[in-house]
Amino acid sequence: MADAQTFETETRARPLWGGPPPGWRARIYLIAFEAETPAGRLFDKVVIAAILLSVCVVFADSIPRLHARWARQFLFAEWGFTALFTAEYALRIVCLRQPWRYAKSFYGIIDLLAVVPTYLALLFPAIHVLIDVRVLRLLRIFRVFKLTAYIAEYQQLAIALAASRRKIAVFLASVVLIVVVLGSLMYVIEGPTHGFTSIPVSIYWAITTMTTVGYGDIIPQTPVGRFVTSLMMLLGWGTLAVPTGIVTSEIALHRGRGPESLDRATRGAIGLSPAPPCTACGEAEHLPRARHCHACGAHLPRPAEAEPEPSR
Amino acid sequence: MADAQTFETETRARPLWGGPPPGWRARIYLIAFEAETPAGRLFDKVVIAAILLSVCVVFADSIPRLHARWARQFLFAEWGFTALFTAEYALRIVCLRQPWRYAKSFYGIIDLLAVVPTYLALLFPAIHVLIDVRVLRLLRIFRVFKLTAYIAEYQQLAIALAASRRKIAVFLASVVLIVVVLGSLMYVIEGPTHGFTSIPVSIYWAITTMTTVGYGDIIPQTPVGRFVTSLMMLLGWGTLAVPTGIVTSEIALHRGRGPESLDRATRGAIGLSPAPPCTACGEAEHLPRARHCHACGAHLPRPAEAEPEPSR
Amino acid sequence: MADAQTFETETRARPLWGGPPPGWRARIYLIAFEAETPAGRLFDKVVIAAILLSVCVVFADSIPRLHARWARQFLFAEWGFTALFTAEYALRIVCLRQPWRYAKSFYGIIDLLAVVPTYLALLFPAIHVLIDVRVLRLLRIFRVFKLTAYIAEYQQLAIALAASRRKIAVFLASVVLIVVVLGSLMYVIEGPTHGFTSIPVSIYWAITTMTTVGYGDIIPQTPVGRFVTSLMMLLGWGTLAVPTGIVTSEIALHRGRGPESLDRATRGAIGLSPAPPCTACGEAEHLPRARHCHACGAHLPRPAEAEPEPSR
Amino acid sequence: MADAQTFETETRARPLWGGPPPGWRARIYLIAFEAETPAGRLFDKVVIAAILLSVCVVFADSIPRLHARWARQFLFAEWGFTALFTAEYALRIVCLRQPWRYAKSFYGIIDLLAVVPTYLALLFPAIHVLIDVRVLRLLRIFRVFKLTAYIAEYQQLAIALAASRRKIAVFLASVVLIVVVLGSLMYVIEGPTHGFTSIPVSIYWAITTMTTVGYGDIIPQTPVGRFVTSLMMLLGWGTLAVPTGIVTSEIALHRGRGPESLDRATRGAIGLSPAPPCTACGEAEHLPRARHCHACGAHLPRPAEAEPEPSR
C-alpha cells in the first residue's frame, strides 16, 4: 500500500482528494483510480470502451442521413452510456476521503461534464446544442496515458514542452504582434472591396497566411498586396524554424533523463509532485529516489510520511 | 555460403522461408533473391524496369484521351507484364525450401498482388476497378533498397524512426484527441449551414487546418469560428515542432552508429534479426559482433549455428 | 544608481539619449523608462493597458456594423488615448538629457507614430486611411520584453537568430533565385490564359506554392505545369528543413550561455552594448565580466566609467 | 599569382578552363574571373547591376499594361543588355587558355543562354516565348556567392546538404512511392466524377496534400476519400520531420568545421577540388593546408605543382 503510494507520488500528481479511506471504499478506490490490480485494469478498459462507443454515437447522430434513420436507437444508447457514467461518477465520489476536492479537480469536472449535458437536454430541450459537450468525454482517455507503458514517452514530451514553455510564450507573443501589424497593413492596402472587410478579418487572413494554411477564401488582388503577402509567406516559413528549434534542443537535452533534471517550477507545471524539502536544513531540490539530503546528509522524509493524509 | 548467410543475417531480416535448397534451385535462388552475383543484379534490373514500365502503362491507361486511342496496345502490354511477373513468381516459389512461408510473407503477398488483379479482371470484368491494385507493384521496389549501396542510409533512417515510434504514437494520440474536440466545437459554432454538415466532416476540416493543408472547401464564416480557427492554426503550427524535435534528436543520437545501439524490440521492428540468446545463461541482449556472452562469458553460438535451417 | 546603470548596460542597449539629468527629472526618468520601482511598474502597466485598449478601439472601428452604431464613442475614446499618449511622450522628452537622441531612436519614432496620425487626420481628413498606422502602437509593447522576467528567453532567441542571420541570408537569397526562375518557367508553360498573367504574378504564385501556403487562386492546368508544380512542392517541402536546421543548431549551441558567447558584431545586432575596448592596448573583444584585458593584462575600465555621461 | 591560385584552389573549384595565358589576357582574366582587385570587383558589380536591371525589364515587359505602353523602350533596353553581355562573353572567351572548356562548363552555358535567346528571337520571331529563358541570367549571380564575404556560410550550408544528400535521396524515393500508391488509391475511391480524372492527376493531388500545400482545386467528397485524406495529411505532417531531422543533425555536426571534415566524394559534389594524393605513398585524404603527408611524412606537392597547367 505504502509502495503503491510512493510510486504514485513519484510518477503522477499526488491526488488532491487525499486518497481512499480504509475499508471497502479502499477496494473501490483501487479499482476506480489505480491500474495496479487486474480489476482496476478491467475497469479502465470498460470505461475507455464506453467512452469511445458513446463518442461514436455522438458522431453518427450528427450525420443527417444516419440521424433520420436511427435517431431512436442513438437516444437509447446515449441514455445507457449516461447511466453508466453516472454510476462511475458516483463510485468515484463514494470511495474518496475528500470527494469535494476530486469534484473540483480537472478530471472531476471532465467526469461531470460527461453526464450533465444529457440530463440538461432532458430538462431544457432548447439547449440541445450543448449536447456536443459530450465529446469532451474523450479527454478522460488522457487519464490513461499516465497509467500505461507509455508513461516514459509521455513524460519526456511533457518535460520538453514544459521546459520550452517560456521561450514559446515569447515567440508566440512576437508572432501575434507581427500578425496584428501586418494584418492591419493589408486592411489598408487591399480594403473591404477585396474581401478584407475589417481589421479582425485581416488578422484572421494574416494568420492563415503566416501559418501556411492558406484557405484561399480571402486573397490579395493588388500588386502591392501580393508583394506584401509574398514577404509574409517567406517570413512565416522562416519563422516556423524557431519553435521547432526550441523544442528540438529541449528534447535533445532531456532525452534519457528523468524529471529530476527539471527545476521545481517546471516539474509542477507538468503535474509532477515536488519532493518534500529536507526537514533538517530545508533544502528543496532532491532527486525523487534520494534517501538522504544532499546538502546536510539528514535522512529525508519519505513522501508518504512527509504529507500525512489526516493533516490535509 | 556461410559467410553470405552471416552477412545477410546481420544486415537484413533473415529470410523467413529458410533459404534455398541445394542444387540448381540454389543457383536460381542466388539470382532471384540475392544481388551478389552479376546475374542477380541483372535480374533485379530487369524486374525493376518491368515494374516501372507496367506502372507507366497503368498511369497512361487511366488518362481518358490516351485510353481512347491506345486501349488495345495497353491491354497487350499489360498481359505481357502479367506473364513476366507470373514467371518471376513461379521462379521464386520453385527455388525455395519453404515456399509457403515466402508466399505468406510481406513481399510474397506483394508479388502475388502484382499478377492476381489482371487474372481476376478477366474472370469478373465487373471488378475492373480492382485493377488499380497493380500500382502496388511499386512496393516491390522497396526490396531493392535493402540490397544496394544505400543500405546504410536506409538503416539510419529506419533506426531513427523505429527509435522514435513510441513518442510519435503518444504525440499522434494527443493530436487526434485535440482534433476531435476542436472539430466538434466548430460543428457547434458554425453548424451545417456553413458547410460543417456533421461532426466527422468537422473533424476532417480540423485536420486540414491543423496540418496547415487548408483546402478552403470548408471555411469558418462566423467571427467566433474564425477566432477559434486562428487559435487552431497557431496551435497546429507550434505542434509541428514536436515530431520534428523527436525525429531530429533520434537521428542525431543514432548517426554513425550501427543497429547494435538499439534494443531488441526496436531492432525487430525494422527487420533486423535479434542475435540469438546465450545458450549458457539465456542472456538475450548482445552486440551482433559479440563472441562471448557479456553476462557469463560463455562462447556465443554464431547466428547460422543457432538457427539451423532444417529445424525450422 | 551606478549599479542600476551597470545592470542596464549589460542586459540592454545603453540608452542612446544619455540617461536622465539629476533632480526631479531623474525621478520621472525612473518612472517612465525603468521598471525597477513600484511606480515604474505601475506606469508600464497603465501604458500597456492603454495601448491594448486603443488598439481594440481601432479594431472595432474597422468593423462596419460596429462603426455604424458606435462611431461617436470610438472617436471620443480615440481622442482620449491620443491625449494620454501625448502626455506620456511629453514626459519622456522632458526627463531626458538628450531628448533629440531619444526622438530619433526606434522607440522614439514609434512613440511619436502613436499620436501623430490622429492629429494629421484632424488637419487633412482625406488621409483618413493613415489612421491605421495607430496599430503600430502595439510595437511599443516590445519594449516591455526587455524589462520583464522573460529577458533571458528573449535574449536566447535573439542570440540564436542573430547568430544564424548570415546563413539565413544566404538561404533566402537562394530561395528567391529559385522562385524567380521557376515562376518565370511557369509563366512560359501555363501562360496568361491559365491565370499566370505576368512574370511577377507567376513569382507570387511560386512563393505561395513553395512555402506550402497554396491559396488556390492561381492553379496549374496543363499536365506539364502540374508536373513542374509537383517538383516545386517537393522541393519547397525539403527546403523548409534548411532554416529549421540552421536555427535549431544555433539554439542548441547557445542555450545556457549568455551573450558573452557572441562576437562583437552579433551582440551589436541584438542590442547588447559591446564592452569598451582596453584603454591600454585597444583590444576590443572581452567577456562582459572581465576585469583585466586578456591581451595585455591591464585593468579594464568598468562600463559606467568608460562611457561617462557628460562626454556624450 | 601563385598565391591567388592556391587560394582559389582551396575555396572554389579549380577552373576547368586552365586559368589565363600570360600577358594582357592575364590582366583581363583577373578582372573578369577574379574579385581580388578593385577592377575585378567593379566588373562584378557592373555585371550584377546589368543582370538585375535586364531581369526587371523582362518582368515589366510581361505585364500587359506596361507592355502596351513601353514595348519599344523595353526592346531598346533588351538590345543594350544583350550587347553588353555579348561583349562580356567575348572577353571571357578571349582571356582563357582553354576557352572551349569554359564554354562547356556550367557557367559558360549560363553565360551563353544570357544572350542567345534575344538573337534567336530576331531570326525566328515565332519562338518569341523562348525569350523568357533570359531570366536564367539570374543564375549568374550565384557565381558571386563564391567570391564574397558569405563564402563560409555558403560552404557550411553546401556541406550540410551535400553530406545529407544520400539520406535525402532515400527519403524522397520513399515519399514518391507513398504518393504514387496513395494517389492511385484515391483515384479508385473518388473517381473522375469528383475531379480525380486520371492517376497522374491523382498523384499531383496527393503531392499537394502531403506537402500541405492544399490548393483546393481537387477535393475529396466521399466519406471514405475524406478519411484516407485525413490519414495522408497526418502522415505528410509527420513525415516532414524526417528531412528536417536529417539536415539539422548534419548542420550541427559540420558547424564550425571546414570542408576538410568531408570525405573525397562529398567535397567533389559541392565543387571543392580534392587535394592531390601524396606522390610518395598515394594517401589521398589530406587537409588542404597540409604541407606534409600525414601517413608517410613526405613533402606534399602544392596543388599548382601537382596539376601543371600545360599538361591539361
From TrEMBL, chains A, B, C, D:
Residues 41-252 form the Ion transport domain. Keywords: Ion channel, Ion transport, Membrane, Potassium, Potassium channel, Potassium transport, Transmembrane, Transmembrane helix, Transport. It is a multi-pass membrane protein. The chain crosses the membrane at residues 46-63, 75-94, 106-131, 168-189, 195-215, 227-247. It is found in: Membrane. InterPro entries: Ion_trans_dom, VG_K_chnl. Its main location: membrane. It comes from the Bacteria. This is Ion transporter. It comes from Novosphingobium mangrovi (ex Hu et al. 2023).
